[in-house]
Every structure is written in C-alpha cells, then in structure tokens.
Specification:
α2 links the parallel β4 and β5 (about 85-95). The protein has a single domain, classed as Pyruvate-ferredoxin Oxidoreductase, domain 3. α4 crosses α6 (about 165-175). It is built from 6 helices and 6 strands. Strands 2-3-1-4-5-6 form a 6-stranded mixed beta sheet, with helices on both faces. It is globular, with a radius of gyration of 15 Å. The longest helix is centred in the first third of the chain and has 15 residues, at about 15-30. With about 180 residues, the protein is α/β, with parallel strands linked by helices.
C-alpha cells in the first residue's frame, strides 16, 4: 500500500538529509519496497524553503510525486502552510508548537503530534541535527516503516564520522521526545 511522507522546513535543518536517510532506512527495513525520494530546495540552500518527499509502496510506483500525505513533518510555519492541504484524511501532522502557532489551515480530520523539536535541537547544539531528531521521532511513530537498527545503520553509513556521536545522540533524543502517544 502506498505511503507518502513529506519533511519540510528551511535549509540548514537537515530536511533533505532526513528524507534521504528515511528512504535508505525504509529500504533496509523492507527490501521489497519500491521507494521514490525527491528532495527540493529553493535557491538559498541555508534559510530557504526545503522539503523531502518519500513514497514507499510494495507495488510499482507509477506516479513519483506525492498526492495525499500520510505523514507531514512541518518544521516552519511557511512549510506547514504550503503542505498541510495535502495531508490525507486520518493522516499525521508532526509539528513543533514553538515554531508553528497558526494551525487554522489544519484539517480537523488529521491526527496531530506536537513535539518540541527546536528545544531538542538546542540540546544537541545545532539545527543541523534536526534531521536525526526527526528520524528518531519517525522511528517511534512509524515502527512498521522503520526499524531502529536500520536507521542507525543508515546513519553510520551515510553521515560524516566526526559527527556520528552527536547524530546518534540526536536520534536517541528524538526517540525520547516521541515517547508520548499520537
């Protein structure tokens, strides 16, 4: 069954990295999946709008663009405003209430998970670790899509070794803050 995820925010938050690592880890968790990963960012890579779309399906993916999101991770107000209208009925919105305060565009039939991502990011020391915090959150909330060991393996294989300890810490922090229920 087709599953669509969008991680969106601004450049420098690791949005592109989070989407790529999600796709890689999902392929490890279920090697039979077809996967499409589409990064998109504005002309200003740091501070400009950025998003990563990931589509997973056991069947061939005939249309490689998102249609109706199962999960939206919104890391800025403008990113939320631009993407919330394509969250499907019963879809999941993950957002930081310290960053997104205007939810007027939110559909009443979406599930909402508030998590203080920016607060966790400050504990790690830089917004570049937002991506691995988000992966920790997604690992907890989407256990049918990601196994923790596969995410860790993807982090170890694809991130710079000199930042691996901080990324693993950020990942564990993401898991910890997602410990609540949806």
């Amino acid at each position: 069954m087709r599953f669509e995820l969008r991680i969106t925010g601004f450049g420098g938050q690791g949005v592109i990295t989070a989407g790529r690592l999600f796709a890689l880890a999902a392929m490890k968790t279920n090697p039979n999946l077809n996967v499409v990963y589409t990064p998109s960012y504005g002309f200003a890579t740091r501070g400009g709008e950025a998003l990563s779309d990931v589509i997973l399906d056991e069947d061939p993916i005939n249309y490689p663009k998102v249609i109706k999101l199962d999960v939206l991770v919104a890391l800025s107000q403008s990113a939320f405003n631009a993407s919330v209208n394509i969250v499907k009925d019963g879809g999941l919105l993950i957002y930081d209430p310290d960053v997104i305060s205007d939810l007027t565009k939110l559909k009443k039939y979406a599930n909402v998970f508030k998590v203080k991502i920016s607060e966790a990011t400050s504990q790690v020391g830089s917004s570049i670790f937002t991506s691995t915090i988000v992966l920790g959150i997604l690992t907890v909330l989407l256990p049918s899509k990601l196994k923790e060991s596969d995410v860790i393996n993807s982090l170890e294989e694809n991130l710079p070794k000199k930042y691996l300890d901080k990324n693993l810490y950020a990942f564990s922090l993401g898991k910890k803050i997602a410990g609540g229920s949806v």
